[in-house]
Design brief:
The structure holds 2 protein chains of 2 kinds. Chain A is mostly beta strands. In chain A, about 0% of the residues lie in helices and about 50% in strands. The chains are: A mainly beta, B mainly beta.
């Protein structure tokens, strides 16, 4: 596709359940990022992939959060034992290469609501 | 990456130029200034970026001061569809996470 694609666009889940959020980056983009945005706040960094490896996962809030990118393209953000505080928009972004010269493009986000 | 400071909100009359300021006084020599905007319920949209020189594209112009401690995003003829939150971000070549802050909420008034 032309842009970063995220599925599902909306997800409502019960507290304690497991959730997977998928990101299809722009074709050929090697760098992939996950951000989280709470209501009224700017996006906050979660994790960055260069190729298949997580180069920086310092933004993941705790060990309930995990992300993979096994073939260096599609990425999945996994949240275990969801809590109400996990409710947010989860944004995925990609760039052709890492580094500040390369523009990062965002998807429309996956809206997660934990009830 | 250096942090940025932006006014929380601004208004602009439709058809007039919108000038959105950003302070990045701790920026270092290899850090780029990026601007994104976010329309309600959508993902952040890339607008423009620059290192030292002023830049212009089909969406906007970016004016960076000579000392690079501040910049201004200019929307030359604001329309109602430009109502959004505008984020000024500083990125380094070595940093892969960057700080959005809370941005400037621009309201274009008919």
């Amino acid at each position: 596709g032309a842009g970063v694609s995220q599925t599902p666009s909306n997800k409502v889940t019960e507290k304690g359940k497991y959730v997977e959020l998928r990101c299809d980056p722009i074709s050929g983009h090697t760098a992939l990022y996950w951000y989280r945005q709470s209501l009224g706040q700017g996006p906050e960094f979660l994790i960055y992939f260069q190729g298949t490896g997580a180069a920086d996962d310092s933004g993941l809030p705790n060990d309930r959060f995990f992300a993979v990118r096994p073939e260096g393209s599609v990425s999945t953000l996994k949240i275990q034992r969801t809590e109400r505080g996990d409710s947010a928009v989860y944004l995925c972004a990609s760039s052709l290469n890492p580094g500040a010269r390369n523009t990062i493009y965002f998807g429309e986000g996956s809206w997660l609501t934990v009830v | 990456d250096a942090k940025t400071t932006q006014p929380p909100s601004m208004d602009c009359a439709e058809g007039r130029a919108a000038n959105l300021p950003c302070n990045h006084s701790t920026i270092s020599g290899n850090e780029y200034v990026y601007w994104y905007r976010q329309i309600h319920s959508q993902g952040p949209q890339y607008i423009i970026h620059g290192l030292k020189n002023n830049e212009t594209n089909e969406m906007a112009s970016l004016i960076i001061t000579e000392d690079r401690k501040s910049s201004t995003l200019i929307l030359p003829h604001a329309t109602l569809r430009d109502t959004a939150v505008y984020y000024c971000i500083v990125r380094s070549n070595t940093g892969n996470q960057f700080y959005f802050g809370t941005g400037t909420s621009l309201t274009v008034i008919p």
